[in-house]
Design goal:
It is a single chain. This protein is of the alpha/beta class. The chain has a single domain, classed as Rossmann fold (3-Layer(aba) Sandwich). The chain contains 6 helices and 6 strands; from the N terminus they run βααβααβααβββ. A hairpin with a 2-residue loop joins β5 and β6. The longest helix has 17 residues. It is globular, with a radius of gyration of 14 Å.
Length: 143
């Protein structure tokens, strides 16, 4: 997709699908976007996303990842731009939550995408093809 030329924030669920082949269609789509992000140097995520990814792939998916493999995936993702969770980001998320009626955790992801100057946010948790604070929300599984 052409949007992968811009800095793109990846929500946890997209990363998880890229490692969980229990849903083959989502696995192929997500892993394709992850590979493109590595190749083009446009991938962005946050420490929140990395923590959620680790817990989900080691504890919650049908074929759990070995802790060492999950750790290596985190090391690999650390080559991307990683937004640190700090008080300023939390306050920005609270503001976004208030103004857009989002859950706090979704607002944290949007805030991280915004502060890292991402054009796009890949997630299946928010409304596809909408904008939140100038960040374009895209669900890569929508047809």
């Amino acid at each position: 997709m052409s949007f992968m030329k811009d800095r793109t924030f990846f929500d946890t669920n997209i990363l998880v699908y890229g490692f969980d082949n229990s849903n083959q269609e989502k696995y192929e789509v997500a892993s394709g976007f992850i590979i493109q992000a590595y190749q083009k140097g446009v991938g962005v995520l946050s420490t929140q996303v990395l923590k959620e990814f680790y817990v989900t792939v080691t504890q919650k998916i049908p074929q759990k990842m070995d802790m060492d493999d999950a750790e290596q995936a985190i090391r690999d993702f650390s080559m991307w731009t990683v937004v640190e969770t700090n008080v300023d980001l939390i306050l920005k998320a609270i503001d976004i939550q208030r103004r857009h009626s989002l859950s706090f955790w979704d607002a944290m992801v949007v805030a991280a995408a915004k502060v890292s100057t991402c054009t796009n946010l890949l997630t299946e948790d928010l409304s596809h093809d909408t904008f939140v604070d100038d960040v374009h929300i895209l669900n890569p599984f929508r047809k």
